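Quick bug: Penicillinase repressor output formatted oddly.
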Amino acid sequence: MSPNGDMKPSSTELTILKHLWRHKAQSLREIHVAIEPELGWTRSSTRKTVERMVDKDLLGLRNVHGLNVYHAKARKIPTLAGMIRDFAADVLGLEGPLPVSNLVKSQVLSQEELLELEAYLENAENAPEDDV
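Here's what came back:
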């Protein structure tokens, strides 16, 4: 997978990605403490999922003073754009991008990111199929 959204993360992987997009690099413990209320996972479940995400190239890993620190490698806008395109096509049966105006109340995207997402979806829609 490239960090440009070629792979669709699972819903639990998306929870971790959203946390790291918001909080940048964090240790496994910090990630676990943040997502445990939502997912109800044990620390070992968090560790296994984070390790799989590193293997899938969704997350990167650095060692900082002997502590493993993880960061999102999957870029936010391309990842979300791919998921939105898939949802619009697979679930809603729509051809073309879902209007970004439907996402203005998103707690995940800032106004600037909404504009970037809209441009990304428009460019992807106009690109040849091989380029998306």
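Actually, after a second look the formatting is fine. The chain has a mean pLDDT of 85. Closing.
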